[in-house]
Amino acid sequence: MRLNVEISGPEMVSLEKLQARTGGASKKELVSTAISILKWAVDETAEGNEIAAVNESESVYRVLVTPLL
After folding, report:
1. Which residues touch 68 (CB under 8 Å, ≥6 apart)?
2. Which pairing describes strands 60-63 and 52-55: parallel, antiparallel, or unpaired?
3. Residue 57: DSSP 8-state
4. Alpha-carbon distance 46 to 40, whole Å?
5. Which residues does residue 63 pair with via DSSP β-bridges, in sequence order?
6. pLDDT by position in tens, the chain (length 69)
């Protein structure tokens, strides 16, 4: 199965920067990973859990807020 997606110039630049930061993974791999993370986040929030970034040494807890969740 194939999916074609149109993204804006700034989004493409962002995607290319992510590709470079992750060691040159293909765009297909980046999208597959993003889908896997989104699925996990949806499953976790459906169970009543929050998705958060935690910095234990600074006692900082930031909950991910996004319209999809």
Report:
1. 38, 42
2. antiparallel
3. G
4. 10
5. 52
6. 888 989 999 999 999 999 999 987 788 899 899 999 999 999 999 999 999 999 999 999 999 999 988
